[in-house]
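Troubleshooting entry. The earlier prediction with adenosine-5'-triphosphate gave an output that would not parse, so I re-checked the input for stray whitespace and re-submitted. Clean input:
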Amino acid sequence: MARVTVRGLTKRFGERTVLDRLDLDIAPGEFVALLGHSGCGKSTLLRVLAGLDRDIDGEAHVDGTVSVAFQQPRLLPWRRVWRNIVLGLHKPEAGRELALKALDEVRLADHADKWPRTLSGGEAQRVSLARALVREPGLLLLDEPFAALDALTRLAMHRLVQDLWRVHQPSVLLVTHDVDEALRLAQRILVLADGRIVSEYEPGEHVRAKVLADLGVGESATA
Ligand SMILES: Nc1ncnc2c1ncn2[C@@H]1O[C@H](COP(=O)(O)OP(=O)(O)OP(=O)(O)O)[C@@H](O)[C@H]1O
C-alpha cells in the first residue's frame, strides 16, 4: 500500500504543456480510475508516477514500490512464461517458486513453461499482471490493460483484478476509456482534462452520465 502525493505537477513536451499544475492524492490501498480523452496526458502521468519520466516541474511522490501493466503485455518472446515473470527480480534461487505462486493467482499455474507466443491475448495479459504483482508493489499502475481484450475476457479480468486487489491491497491507478469499467472497479473516478483533474466521483447513481458529460460524450457511449 503506497500513498501517492502529487502537487503542482507540470509536464511539457517542447512548447506543449500536457500536465498543468496537476494535484492528485491516492490513499494507501485505494483503487482509483482515471478517465480522459485520447492524448490528454493519462499515460504521461503514469510514466511520471512510475519514475520513468523525471523531467518535470512540481512534486510527484510515491512512498512505495511501483509496478506497471500496459495495454500490450510486453512479454519477451525468447523467455518462457515463468522467466518473464521473475525477470530482473534479483531472487534467482526463489525465482521459479515465486513465478509459480504468481501464476497460480492468475489461474495459469499450468502455463509456466509455455512460450509467450502460444498464449491467447487474455492469458498474456494475466501473465503481465502476475509479473506486476510478483514485485508486491505498493502502487499498481494499470494503463488500459483490458482494452485489447474481447468483452467476455475483459469481464473475467475485472473479477480477477478485484480478487487480486483484495488479497494484495496495493493502491491502484487504472487508466481506462471505459466508464463502466471504472464504475465497476474503482472506489474513486477522476477525469483528466486540460492538464488537470477536473472532476472526481465515487461510483453511484448518475455518475456515469456525469462522467460522460465531463468528457463531452452522450449517454450510452463509452469515452
Ligand atoms: N515523448 C513525447 N514527446 C512529445 N510528445 C509526447 C511524448 N509523449 C507524449 N506526448 C504527447 O503528450 C500528449 C499526451 O500523451 P499521453 O500518451 O499521455 O496521452 P493519453 O491520455 O495517455 O492518450 P491515449 O488515451 O490515447 O493513450 C499527447 O499529445 C502526446 O502526443
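This one parsed fine. Residues 13, 18, 36, 38-44 surround adenosine-5'-triphosphate (CB under 6 Å).
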